[in-house]
């Protein structure tokens, strides 16, 4: 592995990425490496692709001391070959979490996620990191893990929605957003929270989308929206490049609704009782990425129609 204490590509940043061994991180990290960034992964598990140019430091993020320490470590063993001692990174991207309910008891999900997000944001701010990106969730919109058949207040779901979930996981994500807002104000840094939609890996289109399309009501909990894991990489890179926005929330979804037909026809036929608050694009995802497109310049690459035979 090459020395990655100093970025080699112009504009390349030194990034500490948490939870990079998981479903999303294993695609986001390769995207970031391809843009010329250097990445250190903090996770409890090894990175699934041993050939990737990313070192994993085993670190329990619920332990504040470990987090502070890990944010001032070498990015890999070759860091010892330089004269310079390790410095804090340019950017911290925090994806590690219990990524849904029912992995552990609810109180552990809440405590683990809230503690790790607090620890990562606090350590990064106190060590002088100026850009932090955290994973929030579609579940904050209150339907994904609601008991029974809950309804959205209105469409499209956008960042100014009055999020009101009833489950512990989504609550932990809202606490993460509030923690981000608090520290962004106190330290005058950028902290962008990505409300990530249902993450789709390349192999999942062919396997899962035919079922989604034939039974659209089963996708209500995801608001008929998704995020391709590679496009999530693009979003992280754009968030790294856009500075000076302070605390921000961005929906992180692909452009289009996951049904056959237009958004207007689908919502009018299936959910006529739910208010529409603005004119929506012909195929716009109900969990809308308009802010991501307009503020960060996101361009959809992996639309589902490329991969699913109709
Ligand atoms: N997968 C989705 O559809 C989805 C949707 C919305 C939001 N999110 C959020 O996006 C992020 C990434 O999701 P994912 O699907 O890749 O999750 P994942 O469960 O596949 O990966 C999470 C990673 O975090 C690590 N981790 C957990 N606790 C840790 C701790 N205490 N210390 C260090 N590492 C720890 C795990 O080992 C794992 O590798 C999460 O924050 C999740 O809540 C995911």
UniProtKB/TrEMBL annotation:
Pfam name, any one: Epimerase
Membrane-spanning residues: none
Organism of provenance: Cryomyces minteri
Top-level division of the source organism's lineage: Eukaryota
UniProt name for this protein: NAD-dependent epimerase/dehydratase domain-containing protein
Domain NAD-dependent epimerase/dehydratase: 15-213
UniProt xrefs under InterPro entries: Epimerase_deHydtase (IPR001509), NAD(P)-bd_dom_sf (IPR036291)
């Amino acid at each position: 592995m090459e020395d990655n204490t100093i970025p080699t590509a112009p504009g390349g940043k030194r990034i500490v990425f948490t939870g990079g061994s998981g479903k999303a991180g294993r695609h986001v990290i390769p995207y970031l490496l391809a843009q010329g960034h250097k990445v250190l992964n903090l996770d409890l598990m090894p990175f699934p692709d041993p050939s990737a140019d990313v070192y994993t430091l085993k670190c329990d993020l619920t332990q504040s001391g470990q987090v502070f320490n890990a944010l001032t470590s070498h990015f890999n063993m070759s860091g010892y070959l330089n004269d310079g001692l390790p410095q804090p990174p340019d950017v911290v991207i925090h994806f590690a979490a219990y990524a849904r309910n029912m992995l552990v008891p609810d109180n552990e999900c809440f405590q683990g996620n809230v503690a790790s997000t607090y620890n990562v944001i606090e350590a990064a701010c106190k060590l002088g990191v100026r850009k932090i990106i955290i994973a929030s969730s579609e579940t904050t919109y209150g339907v994904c893990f609601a008991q029974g058949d809950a309804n959205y207040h209105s469409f499209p779901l956008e960042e100014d929605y009055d999020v009101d979930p009833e489950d512990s996981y989504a609550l932990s994500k809202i606490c993460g957003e509030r923690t981000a807002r608090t520290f962004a104000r106190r330290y005058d840094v950028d902290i962008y929270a990505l409300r990530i939609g249902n993450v789709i890996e390349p192999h999942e289109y062919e396997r899962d989308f035919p079922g989604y399309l034939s039974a659209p009501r089963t996708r209500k909990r995801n608001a008929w929206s998704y995020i391709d894991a590679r496009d999530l990489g693009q979003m992280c890179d754009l968030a790294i490049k856009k500075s000076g926005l302070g605390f921000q929330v961005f929906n992180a979804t692909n452009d289009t609704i996951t049904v056959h037909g237009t958004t207007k026809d689908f919502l009018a036929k299936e959910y006529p009782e739910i208010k529409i608050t603005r004119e929506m694009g012909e195929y716009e995802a109900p969990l809308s990425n308009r802010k991501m497109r307009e503020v960060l310049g996101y361009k959809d690459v992996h639309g589902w129609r490329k991969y699913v035979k109709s």
